[in-house]
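Here is an idea for our session: we take a single protein and study its fold together. Which protein we use is up to you, so please pick one and set it down. Once you have written the record down, we can walk along the chain together:
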Amino acid sequence: MAMTINMARLSLKSSPEAADELLKELHAGMSAVTGDIRELVYGLRPPALDDLGLARAVRDLAGQSSPGTEIEVEVEGDLADLPAAVEVAVYRIVQEALTNIRRHAEASRARIVLQREEPMLRVLIADDGKGLPASHRAGVGLGSMRERAAELGGICVVTGEPGAGTRVEVMLPLLTAGMSLRP
């Protein structure tokens, strides 16, 4: 990119069209790099998990999420020793579900349940909003939730009838002692 900038500067006076073309190429390249960096940052472990632990980090997300929606968070079981990859997946899935509630649901209430039942972690995010439209097609957000669960050998099911709210149900297997997952 630095070389392209130098080439554009050198050709600016003698060939403004060439300089303009180089700058257009530079802009496109920078946009691609920015997208790559966003993708990398998105995949990193959120600092809130280390600072607060999963339960408090989810409560924090819920508190910041939808000002017009009352969100209740329930935790059943000990979440202290979950694999890092499970924590990140749960955090990101809850984050995406809350984003969907804020953007699309028009919900007055939502509920998040984190339930550890060996050898499984169950996650439920449910709202009383307008539900999924009859002609619903999964977008990037729903697809990413399903992919995160599948990467860990789990499942993510999203259901909702028009006018009856939406439910995101996730089941993630927990590994036995000695095994670990990468975040």
Observations:
- The longest helix spans residues 16-43.
- The beta strands are 70-76, 109-117, 120-127, 155-159, 167-173.
- The radius of gyration is 22 Å.
